[in-house]
Amino acid sequence: MFLGQFVHTLDSKGRLTIPAKFRAVLDSGLIVTRGMDRCLAVFPTDEWDELAGRVSDLPMTDRQARAFKRFLFASASDVSPDKQGRILIPPRLREYADLDGEVVVAGLNNYIEIWNTDAWENEREQVEGDDVTLEGWTALGI
């Protein structure tokens, strides 16, 4: 389970140190891809395989399904942490999420998001505002 948020720094080569408490789950490898809301999503390989199976089952004849497959798979990259627990984030993904320097690494239970610090702050303010209400949770079935 991935919990918490951490501020880390991308080095000049685009490497990011994964928070120590997340590393054991990711040692066998991980997938980095575009996430929703202009962040990156990082999945352990077993979670990725489960998601990929569900997405692959979507019909090719559905335009939205094809668009989502392109969004998710075309920019995905499988990476392995080095001995220092760093991963190399490909340039196209760094550009997509506007990552440079300090970033926020946020645990979201079964996957991780990597955010531009300003974008994270905006998202956090929005989430802590009107979106976190009893009505909102009820609408989600929680």
Describe, in plain words, how this protein is organized in 3D.
The protein has a single domain, classed as Transcriptional regulator MraZ domain (Chemotaxis protein chec, 3-Layer(aba) Sandwich), CATH 3.40.1550. The longest helix has 12 residues. By secondary structure, the protein is an alpha+beta fold. It is globular and about 40 Å long. The strands form two sheets. A six-stranded antiparallel β-sheet has the order 1-7-8-4-3-5. Strands 2-6 form a two-stranded antiparallel ribbon.
In short:
The protein is 38% helix and 25% strand.
Notable traits:
alpha+beta; Chemotaxis protein chec; two-stranded antiparallel ribbon; 8 strands; globular
- In which order are the strands of the major sheet placed? 1-7-8-4-3-5
- N-to-C series of helices and strands: EEHEEHHEEHEEHH
Low-confidence stretches: none
Task: Supply the CATH class.
Answer: Alpha Beta
- Architecture (CATH level 2) name: 3-Layer(aba) Sandwich
- Count of separate structural domains: 1
Shape: globular
Fourth-level CATH superfamily? Transcriptional regulator MraZ domain
Annotation field: number of helices: 6
Number of strands: 8
Roughly what fraction of the amino acids lie in strands?
15-25%
**Mean pLDDT score, rounded?**
91
Distance between the termini: 19 Å
> In terms of structural class, how would the helical and strand content be classed?
alpha+beta
CATH fold-type name? Chemotaxis protein chec
The radius of gyration is 16 Å
The biggest beta sheet, please?
6 strands, antiparallel
Helicity, as a percent range:
25-40%
